[in-house]
Design goal:
By secondary structure, the protein is mainly beta. The chain has one domain: Immunoglobulin-like, CATH 2.60.40. 0% of the residues lie in helices and 55% in strands. It has a four-stranded mixed sheet, with no helix packed on it. It is elongated.
């Protein structure tokens, strides 16, 4: 029996607190949704967001996820970023690459969505 490959389509909503997220370096396309594209088990997908601080003081950022659909898929995904915990000055913009990795063991999933929440604190 040969190997079987399944493609998984993913996306979701981007929510921000205390900062703005953009899809482009010119900061003209606000990021309100994210499309992870088609992913295969064991694969990953990268999305770059340009994050602009709305804080009046230097601050750090963090992210979390919620509202996974279907809810049973969350353990099969790992979301990482290349943000290095630097403080953002007021109005500073930094590019951040989010990488979503899907487990080789995922099965029975053809689509998924989740909300990405990015928050500034400090």
């Amino acid at each position: 029996m040969g190997s079987q490959s399944v493609r998984i389509q993913g996306g979701g909503v981007i929510q921000t607190v205390g900062l703005e997220a953009f899809m482009d370096t010119d900061l003209t396309i606000k990021a309100s949704t994210i499309n992870w594209g088609l992913m295969s088990p064991g694969g990953n997908s990268n999305v770059t967001l340009y994050l602009k601080s709305s804080s009046t003081i230097p601050a750090e950022i963090m992210f979390s996820t919620e509202n996974w659909e279907p809810s049973t898929v969350q353990p099969f995904f790992n979301l990482m970023w290349d943000y290095n915990n630097q403080f953002l000055s007021p109005n500073q913009v930094i590019p951040v690459i989010f990488t979503l990795r899907v487990s080789e063991n995922v099965a029975g999933v053809t689509t998924f969505t989740f909300d990405l929440i990015i928050t500034i604190y400090g």
